[in-house]
Amino acid sequence: MRFDEAYSGNVFIKSHPSYEDAQAVLYGMPMDWTVSYRPGSRFGPSRIREVSIGLEEYSPYLDRELEDVKYFDAGDIPLPFGNPYKSIDLIEEYIDSLMKDNKFPLGMGGEHLVSWPVMKAVAKKYPDLAIIHMDAHTDLRTDYEGEELSHSTPIRKIAEHIGPKNVYSFGIRSGMKEEFEWAKENGMHISKFEVLEPLKEILPTLAGRPVYVTIDIDVLDPAHAPGTGTVDAGGITSRELLASIHAIAGSNVHVVGADLVEVAPIYDSSEQTANTASKLLREMLLGWVK
């Protein structure tokens, strides 16, 4: 069932009508309560759904169609405005239910903090979980100006939860010096600036392991994704990000969940970012849900 049974809005293209026999569940986490720069990512999930109608159902990259995967668009988790603590709890509770039902969770943010309770819930089911993180920013702060719940902290939180050596970050080009030093001292993998080639080197070492993938849309250069809260020049192209998704699909890692966060439509009048995000989600569904 959806969060709102009376929901009459858009769903992601080709969403399956039934939760019970769906392999994957697509859901939104419309939260931007802790952003440090520009808000608006809470509107990302709904806009991604709306523009998905323009997608082709067939992926020439993977030679699969959306009909090949049974996925259910559950709508957005109803999160209490301005309350990050309660929001985090509600997200974790929902993912716990998906894990119990053996569903593949595919989330849409929302700010990047929403990934923390998802990864935490997935780690309960998969104690040997590894994280693949693609982002412009390290997200390794312990707090932001005294606030421990911040969109700049989710990767630090999951690294401390499952062990820094199980977290692999790619495309990083922004962060405090102390964050980079902490990662190095604690054995966490960080690939600066690039994604595809260092990812290809790491994937064989993760063969057979359960992996959760979290993608911040700002890993892309602002030329490719202007609609995000914290833009950072010098990012990768959409072509490289697509190739990275496909590299994971063609590897022997066991992807057990994923999310795509930080799409903020208000900063992109051309809707370029939302359209890119919807295509990325199509490839994630077709490539990672077996």
TrEMBL record:
<comment type="function">
    <text>Catalyzes the formation of putrescine from agmatine.</text>
</comment>
<dbReference type="GO" id="GO:0046872">
    <property type="term" value="F:metal ion binding"/>
</dbReference>
<comment type="similarity">
    <text>Belongs to the arginase family. Agmatinase subfamily.</text>
</comment>
<feature type="binding site">
    <location>
        <position position="135"/>
    </location>
    <ligand>
        <name>Mn(2+)</name>
    </ligand>
</feature>
<dbReference type="InterPro" id="IPR020855">
    <property type="entry name" value="Ureohydrolase_Mn_BS"/>
</dbReference>
<feature type="binding site">
    <location>
        <position position="139"/>
    </location>
    <ligand>
        <name>Mn(2+)</name>
    </ligand>
</feature>
<keyword id="KW-0464">Manganese</keyword>
<keyword id="KW-0479">Metal-binding</keyword>
<dbReference type="GO" id="GO:0008783">
    <property type="term" value="F:agmatinase activity"/>
</dbReference>
<feature type="binding site">
    <location>
        <position position="218"/>
    </location>
    <ligand>
        <name>Mn(2+)</name>
    </ligand>
</feature>
<dbReference type="Pfam" id="PF00491">
    <property type="entry name" value="Arginase"/>
</dbReference>
<keyword id="KW-0745">Spermidine biosynthesis</keyword>
<dbReference type="GO" id="GO:0008295">
    <property type="term" value="P:spermidine biosynthetic process"/>
</dbReference>
<dbReference type="GO" id="GO:0033389">
    <property type="term" value="P:putrescine biosynthetic process from arginine, via agmatine"/>
</dbReference>
<dbReference type="InterPro" id="IPR006035">
    <property type="entry name" value="Ureohydrolase"/>
</dbReference>
<keyword id="KW-0661">Putrescine biosynthesis</keyword>
<feature type="binding site">
    <location>
        <position position="216"/>
    </location>
    <ligand>
        <name>Mn(2+)</name>
    </ligand>
</feature>
<feature type="binding site">
    <location>
        <position position="137"/>
    </location>
    <ligand>
        <name>Mn(2+)</name>
    </ligand>
</feature>
<keyword id="KW-0620">Polyamine biosynthesis</keyword>
<feature type="binding site">
    <location>
        <position position="112"/>
    </location>
    <ligand>
        <name>Mn(2+)</name>
    </ligand>
</feature>
<comment type="pathway">
    <text>Amine and polyamine biosynthesis; putrescine biosynthesis via agmatine pathway; putrescine from agmatine: step 1/1.</text>
</comment>
<keyword id="KW-0378">Hydrolase</keyword>
<dbReference type="InterPro" id="IPR005925">
    <property type="entry name" value="Agmatinase-rel"/>
</dbReference>
<dbReference type="InterPro" id="IPR023696">
    <property type="entry name" value="Ureohydrolase_dom_sf"/>
</dbReference>
<protein>
    <recommendedName>
        <fullName>Agmatinase</fullName>
        <ecNumber>3.5.3.11</ecNumber>
    </recommendedName>
</protein>
